[in-house]
Amino acid sequence: MISNLIAGLSILVFLGFTNSYAIYLLLAEIPTPPSQNHS
User: Fold this and answer.
1) Residue 30 has what DSSP assignment?
2) C-alpha span between 14 and 7 (Å, rounded)
3) Core-most of 5, 30, 34, 38, by most CB within 10 Å?
4) HEC sequence for 6-34
5) Tell me: the pLDDT tens digits for 1-39?
């Protein structure tokens, strides 16, 4: 039962990480105007 919980959590973390990474790649593809580039 504990192993099932750990496996479920690791899958959720993995999906969340890949999801945020895909969003980051998509945002990096879009050229941002200099006015909105704060850094």
Assistant:
1) S
2) 10
3) 5
4) HHHHHHHHHHHHHHHHHHHHHHHHCCCCH
5) 889 999 999 999 999 999 999 888 888 887 766 666 555
